[in-house]
Design goal:
By secondary structure, the chain is an all-alpha fold. It is built from 15 helices and three strands. Helix 1 packs across helix 11, helix 5 packs across helix 6 and helix 13 crosses helix 15. The chain is 53% helix and 3% strand. The chain has a three-stranded antiparallel sheet with strand order 1-3-2. Among the domains are: 126 residues, Hypothetical protein, domain 2 (Endonuclease III, domain 1), CATH 1.10.340.30; 56 residues, Winged helix-like DNA-binding domain superfamily/Winged helix DNA-binding domain (Arc Repressor Mutant, subunit A, Orthogonal Bundle).
Length: 298
């Protein structure tokens, strides 16, 4: 249990924050001029997506839609088309919906509390806390996969968390592990996340580069192998996700409606293509037209 382990000390907080000051990546949404809207876009785009793929799309979106009002004024289909191949394209629709709500309820601005952020479509506990912290400097508890892995190793002595999603105990421990001083706490959130992304990685951790290797319970125990429940990787080839992606790609690449005949070979079987097309319509990502034609939402 996390409660049985000692909390990080001020010295440990300082070491990790100092490491981040020297080694943190110069990501564009971390710049002061990115603003809350830039931070918000980055957090939604980075959900289950590598940052290397996020950055070019983020730059394009921010140039095209520099404010929530600009995105809200666009057609939902424009957002889906501009999403490209980032994956999980419903995020593009949720961003458009959220921008519309920001205009209608928040004066065209990103709301500045985690409670208001949680009320936006497509925003969960992590995203709300991350935007509140990184955009507005609020010391919210930010817990992602990297943070969970760093705390599991550093404090508990485990190779990784045994749960696929954060448990209440993990979130509560992460809150107790944070520094008490506001600025130090907000830096700590991103610093621990960055340490997990660059050094305390899932495979092949670079303990020789870690600023707290001498204090890490897992490292001091000889880095024992993970012995928890097996993690199942996600498949892609031949799945509905692949077929949905191919259907959307064809509709994105053509700026006019396509017939069912032009979409039927998007998957190996007709029944799967039709099922995926129906699911895209149900999700609001595809708009059916008369004459058996389909397009991105207008």
């Amino acid at each position: 249990m996390y409660a049985a382990h000692p909390l990080p000390t001020a010295a440990l907080h300082q070491r990790i924050n100092d490491w981040y000051a020297w080694h943190g990546r110069d990501l564009p949404w971390r710049a002061r001029d990115a603003g809350p809207w830039g931070v918000y876009l980055s957090e939604v785009m980075a959900q289950q997506t590598p940052l290397s793929r996020v950055e070019p799309v983020w730059r394009e979106w921010l140039q095209r839609w520099p404010t929530p009002a600009a995105l809200a004024a666009a057609a939902p289909g424009d957002a889906v088309r501009a999403w490209g191949r980032l994956g999980y394209p419903r995020r593009a629709l949720r961003l458009h919906e959220a921008a519309t709500i920001m205009v209608e309820r928040h004066g065209g601005a990103v709301p500045d509390t985690s409670e208001e952020l949680l009320a936006l479509p497509g925003v969960g506990a992590y995203t709300a806390a991350a935007v509140a912290c990184f955009a507005f400097g609020l010391p919210e508890v930010v817990v992602d996969t990297n943070v969970r892995r760093v705390l599991a190793r550093l404090i508990e002595g485990s190779a990784q968390s045994s749960r696929a999603t954060p448990s209440r105990a993990e979130s509560e421990f992460a809150a107790r592990a944070m520094p008490r001083e506001r600025h130090t706490a907000t830096v700590w959130n991103v610093a621990v996340m960055e340490l997990g992304a660059l050094v305390c990685v899932a495979r092949g951790p670079r303990c020789g580069q870690c600023p707290v290797a001498d204090l890490c319970a897992w490292n001091l125990a000889g880095r024992p192998a993970y012995d928890g429940p097996a993690r199942r990787g996600q498949t892609w080839k031949g799945t509905d996700r692949q077929v949905r992606g191919e259907l959307l790609r064809r509709l994105r690449d053509r700026h006019h409606a396509l017939t069912l005949r032009e979409l039927r070979d998007a998957g190996p079987q007709d029944v799967q293509v039709l099922r995926c097309l129906d699911s895209l319509v149900a999700d609001g990502l595809v708009e059916p037209l008369t004459g058996g034609r389909f397009q991105l939402p207008s």
